[in-house]
Design goal:
- The structure is a single chain.
- The chain is of the alpha+beta class.
- It has three domains: 57 residues, Hormone Receptor, Insulin-like Growth Factor Receptor 1, Chain A, domain 2 (Hormone Receptor, Insulin-like Growth Factor Receptor 1, Chain A domain 2); 45 residues, Hormone Receptor, Insulin-like Growth Factor Receptor 1, Chain A domain 2 (Ribbon), CATH 2.10.220; 88 residues, no CATH class.
- It is 16% helix and 36% strand.
- The chain has one helix and 16 strands.
- It has a two-stranded antiparallel sheet.
- The termini are far apart.
- The N terminus and C terminus are likely disordered.
- Its main location: secreted.
- Pfam families: Furin-like_2 (PF15913), TSP1_spondin (PF19028).
- Keywords: Developmental protein, Disulfide bond, Glycoprotein, Heparin-binding, Secreted, Sensory transduction, Signal, Wnt signaling pathway.
Length: 212
């Protein structure tokens, strides 16, 4: 219906020139439209966005949805479609889905997601399956999937993660210690050099005495 000096009372059982429809036909919904400081009654087949149809013995009415960010609702406290950018979840509208639920983008709904348990303690620091022989290694912790997601397209969060750690034992017990071996080789080379130097010095002294 449109309103001017003479309102058009389509679907009305009774109509007012100033206020539009006052009563509607049985199957239609009465909707009170506000325009600035004035308001007009309309009789509609379906209620506009943000309202739901409430049927009563007296007269069917369009009642406002009480759910925040709701575009259309089934009842006063249960939203069936949220406004753009919001996800529907159990009759409410959310910017992001609650914990344990995943966003289904094509329907803008929150569905049961992948539920995981608590993290385990960090494991033993190791490298190449050894817990010694290196300065640095990796330690890992895990968690179990408690409940699989409702849809296969919804990924589960990571169930294992690792971090760098310092080995408790740099050298393995009973193993060859490469660094001491290097030190031993250096000492041996130094000793040989000293012996050669002493030998050359002795030859020099003997030659010098002969020349005298």
């Amino acid at each position: 219906a449109s309103y001017g000096p003479n309102p058009i009372c389509k679907g009305c059982l009774s109509c007012s020139k100033d206020n539009g429809c006052i009563r509607c036909q049985h199957k239609l919904f009465f909707f009170l439209r506000r325009e600035g400081m004035r308001q007009y009654g309309e009789c509609l087949h379906s209620c506009p966005s943000g309202y739901y149809g409430l049927r009563t013995p007296d007269m069917n009415r369009c009642s406002r949805c009480r759910i925040e960010n709701c575009d259309s609702c089934f009842s006063r406290d249960f939203c069936t479609k949220c406004k753009t950018g919001f996800y529907s979840h159990r009759g409410r509208c959310f910017r992001g889905c609650p914990p344990g639920f995943a966003a289904l983008e094509e329907l803008m709904e929150c569905v049961e997601g992948c539920e995981v348990g608590q993290w385990s303690e960090w494991g033993t620091c190791s490298r190449n399956n050894k817990t010694c022989g290196f300065k640095w290694g990796l330690e890992t912790r895990t968690r179990q999937i408690v409940k699989k997601p409702a849809k296969d397209t919804i990924p589960c969060p990571t169930i294992a993660e690792s971090r760098r750690c310092k080995m408790a034992m740099r050298h393995c017990p009973g193993g060859k210690r490469r660094r001491p071996a290097k030190t031993k080789d250096k000492k041996k080379k130094k000793k040989n050099l000293m012996e050669r130097a002493q030998k050359q010095h002795s030859i020099f002294l003997a030659t010098d005495k002969t020349s005298q």
